[in-house]
Amino acid sequence: MSFTLAIVGRPNVGKSTLFNRLVGRKLALVDDQPGVTRDLREGEARLGPMRFTVIDTAGLEEATDESLQGRMRKLTERAVQMADVCLFVIDARAGVTPTDEMFAGILRKMSAHVILAANKAEGRAGESGLLEAYSLGLGEPLRLSAEHGEGMSELHAMLEPVAKEHAERAEAAAPVVDVDVEDGEEHESWEPTEARPLQIAVVGRPNAGKSTLINKIIGQDRLLTGPEAGITRDSISLAFDWEGVPTRLFDTAGMRKKARIQDKLEKMSVTDGLRAVRFAEVVVVLLDAEIPFETQDLRIADLAEREGRAVVVAVNKWDLETEKQDKLRDLREAFERLLPQLRGAPLVTVSAKTGRGLDRLREAILSAHAVWNSRVGTSSLNRWLSEMVEAHPPPAPGGRRIKLRYATQVKTRPPGFVVMCSLPDKLPESYTRYLVNGLRDDFDMPGTPIRLHMRSQSDKNPYKGRKKSTPSRLRKHLGKGPYKGT
Ligand SMILES: Nc1nc2c(ncn2[C@@H]2O[C@H](COP(=O)(O)OP(=O)(O)OP(=O)(O)O)[C@@H](O)[C@H]2O)c(=O)[nH]1
Ligand SMILES: Nc1nc2c(ncn2[C@@H]2O[C@H](COP(=O)(O)OP(=O)(O)OP(=O)(O)O)[C@@H](O)[C@H]2O)c(=O)[nH]1
Fold first, then answer.
1. Which of 74-83, 147-156, 271-280 has the highest mean pLDDT?
2. ipTM for the complex?
3. What segment(s) does the record annotate as region Disordered (predicted)?
4. Which pairs count as long-range contacts for 229-233, CB under 8 Å and 24+ apart, including other chains?
5. CATH class for the domain made up of 4-171
């Protein structure tokens, strides 16, 4: 694992712009209205050959009460605690403000390692602000222009000792061993480690209670919650230990219907949410018990399945339900009818507010993750295949019976299988479905996408050269017409 850098500074100094430059994608929102960045956000940064984790924070504010600004400040303090090194950004054009001074004081006390950066200093702009910056007592300021990419090699040089120290410490840690998916008879699964934590995205409509749920899980007020819809504007990620399981959680902006996306900000937020689905291994689709399985919920669940993620459906605000038994029966029925592609996926009821059901949710996530990682031994797979063929032989188009010769699992996460077949193009879809459902039931793989490919003996590895999904593809999915439920 690489070291972690937290970018802090008062609103509008250019933190998000710098974050974007380091991460190399438009992951953070940039806007010229102060206070746009509301939560912590993490990304993998590249600076020349250097790789590290960068955290972008909310704007630091003086307010100490429980106002939104006060809470943002608390979040920032947490970010600094999480980081190995802290980049304190000021606006060189505006010079040192009283707010900068106050937070410099806090940072001096809190963080072992602070790098002071005077941003917006492209060309000769901000010269006097740069000089003023010395008065903050944090050493020589780094001259930066996040927007124009100036000062990046100097930043790299300042981070080198941090990277070196971190690498030395990390050397003691155990190496990560990847699962060999090519062969083996064991039905084994891969366990999360600190280096590769369990990655969970919580997705759902605005106001479903995503932030409340994550706060409850983490047990501290790391995310902001509030009654107004859309308070979580961006997708952010949080690393923590979930009762012994290293975990990374992605909270996403509520995925609104396209028509309701009015301004630029919200449009970007939806894209961020989709990106979180892509990063995740397990997607928790959070429904509001009062309004479950709306079109948008179905689309998100379908998208997660198509992207090959393990899915857990959680029905929130269960504390508000009075007729729990009847409601649960209706929910299960609707789930089966509307999301047949997720057959067997866990459906759990929770109350993010009271914390009821969170143990069950954790269990469901862990078992979905285990299934997603699972591997079926080749010999049991082939015994199974001949039983399936015997019970229900493939058709014989033109009098020639299609032969299924051999099956093997070629990948995990999610499980992918290849069956060698004499006439793959002639085998009907329904037969493939029969096999997929059989795999799901007989090898106990509920609720995970299963990929099954038919290949003739001459075909090469079907996974070779396969393109990874891209955010634009994800966007296209979301933009599709009404959900058909097929
Ligand atoms: N001239 C100049 N403008 C910059 C530079 N970096 C950022 N800006 C502008 O400063 C404004 C604020 O940038 P952001 O990156 O949104 O600032 P922030 O610190 O993340 O703000 P909050 O989210 O409010 O905390 C935007 O209009 C940027 O285009 C720079 O290097 N030079
Ligand atoms: N009764 C009840 N209310 C809840 C529960 N979970 C969340 N809420 C309330 O629902 C509202 C929305 O919760 P948030 O956690 O902000 O929702 P969100 O999904 O993160 O919302 P966006 O940021 O808009 O995407 C808040 O007023 C919460 O207090 C629950 O389990 N029971």
1. 147-156
2. 0.58
3. 446-486
4. 229/254, 230/206, 230/254, 230/256, 230/266, 230/269, 231/38, 232/38, 232/39, 233/29, 233/36, 233/38, 233/39, 233/265, 233/266, 233/269
5. alpha beta
